[in-house]
Write a structure and sequence with these properties.
By secondary structure, the protein is an alpha/beta fold. The chain contains 14 helices and 13 strands. It binds ligand SAJ.
Length: 435
């Protein structure tokens, strides 16, 4: 047994430090604080730190601000630029990929190197960030380089001074607080004692089941969850391409096929956005190369979707002398403000740069256009009604709830390119006897 895991009764987590106060780290901090733990959130962004300390948040996530405000005002949560000692450290920093689609672990390494000098016997280090297989082991190695005095855990050795585990985040933007509490979690330890100590921390706020395993299995598990979704979305996207070719309505086809008891086809769209599903499969592909052929093909299918939409919009625009195109939605998915890696932004930017005509951009969830669309000729942000009144072509890119309610009569005489099946009017007819 690790000596750090032998404490009976288990040492309480009086103080937890969370590194990275973004879409994952801030909700984790607020929920832990709401359970009475003293939480210190560390971030490199002074703006985020000062907003949080005044009880406000720098991201959009339902109910989160209320929770942060309560935690800050009762003194359980504070944000800082400067790391300090704690009983547990949670790393929730970004793990992007490089230009050549290799994982960029520089933020994880920087956080580890900041934590290492502060570590005391009995401490727990948790990696929450989605990471390639081997990252949790690398964290141990980096700690060891800075703290040769500590006995570090490994899968074979007994008697470590600290615990290190991976508990990959699983939350869905838009419903983060609910998923943070109710979702089951995988906790992968460098040793079994590390996994159990991780369980002690997450049992403070997770009501779903906590499944203990090795760090490598937890790492691959998280990547596989997102790769699975990516492959399934690619199937739907490929189907939309096939249906265009064969003149079949893809939405009707999917509705019908999904009536089979063992078929559940996802929705086609203009591409896969966000900072997870379009990134994580590369962490597997870059590790094993052509062993991940299905995942690789799925990435290529999904990445090709935005350019298909651009081609369709250009073909429609050629039918008008001075086309006006209403571009509905910029976010990477419905009813959120997150524009990161959004296919809609890429499509609008490409259309503007290829001078297809006037672009009337509608995005109800953000006040300003993103930097990549600033100053592009012929492009302006407008309200939905103005866009629908003026446009010759309606290009629906995101199925925000406001767009589902569009009066279909306003679309008469316009060319509609509905990449999300949100403006459909007809559903497959059901047989009813005597009708
Ligand atoms: N999409 C489609 N068709 C669909 C479903 C999604 O085109 O049928 C598109 C969306 O429009 C969006 C992209 O895929 O552009 C991703 O959206 P999403 O809702 O599938 O997932 P994310 O990226 O918001 O969150 C995912 C979740 N992973 C899984 O569902 C397996 C979440 O649980 C993870 O915590 C998150 O990635 C993450 O942070 O890794």
């Amino acid at each position: 047994m690790d000596s750090a895991g032998d404490d009976k009764p288990k040492a309480a987590f009086k103080k937890v430090s969370v590194f990275g106060l973004g879409y994952v780290g801030l909700p984790v901090s607020a929920v832990l604080a709401s359970r009475g733990v003293e939480v210190v959130g560390v971030d490199v962004n002074p703006h985020a730190v000062s907003m949080i300390n005044s009880g406000r948040i720098h991201i959009v996530e339902p109910d989160l601000e209320m929770l942060v405000q309560a935690a800050v005002s009762n003194g359980k949560l504070r944000a800082t630029l400067q790391a300090e000692p704690a009983d547990a450290f949670v790393i929730a920093v970004p793990t992007p990929f490089t230009e050549d689609r290799k994982p960029d672990l520089s933020y994880v390494r920087k956080a580890t190197e900041t934590i290492a000098p502060l570590l005391q016997k009995g401490n727990l280090v948790i990696l929450e960030s989605t990471s390639p297989v081997g990252t949790t082991e690398a964290i141990c190695k980096w700690i060891g380089e800075i703290r040769p005095d500590l006995v570090l855990p490994d899968s074979t050795r007994e008697g470590a001074d600290i615990h290190v585990a991976h508990c990959p985040e699983r939350v869905l933007p838009g419903t983060v607080l609910r998923e943070l509490i109710y979702n089951d979690r995988i906790i992968g330890g460098i040793s079994p004692a590390c996994a159990r100590r991780g369980g002690d921390l997450y049992s403070l706020f997770v009501t779903g089941e906590l499944h203990l395993t090795t760090a490598r299995t937890a790492e691959l598990g998280k990547l596989v969850e997102n790769a699975f979704r990516d492959v399934n979305i690619a199937f739907a996207n490929e189907l939309s391409v096939i249906c265009d070719e064969l003149h079949v309505n893809v939405w009707e086809l999917i509705d019908l096929a999904n009536h089979h008891p063992r078929v559940n086809i996802l929705k086609p769209g203009p591409g896969v956005g966000g900072h997870c599903i379009a990134v994580d499969p590369w962490f597997i592909i870059s590790a094993v190369g052509d062993k991940a052929r299905v995942m690789h093909a799925a990435r290529n299918v999904n990445d090709a979707m935005p350019d298909r939409v651009v081609a369709k919009a250009k073909a429609a625009a050629r039918k008008f002398r001075q086309p006006k195109v209403a571009c509905l939605g910029l976010a990477y998915k419905p009813n959120i403000d997150d524009l990161r890696e959004s296919p809609a932004v890429h499509i609008v930017e490409t259309l503007a740069k290829s001078d297809v005509g006037e672009l009337l951009v509608v995005e109800p969830n953000v006040k300003e256009l993103p930097a990549s669309l600033h100053g592009l000729p012929g492009l302006r942000k407008v309200e939905l009604r103005e866009a629908l009144d003026e446009a010759d072509i309606v290009l629906l890119l995101v199925d925000h709830r406001q767009f589902l309610r569009i009066d279909r009569e306003l679309l008469d005489l316009k060319i509609v390119i509905d990449t999300r099946g949100a403006l459909r009017t007809s559903m497959p007819e059901k047989y009813s006897p005597g009708a």
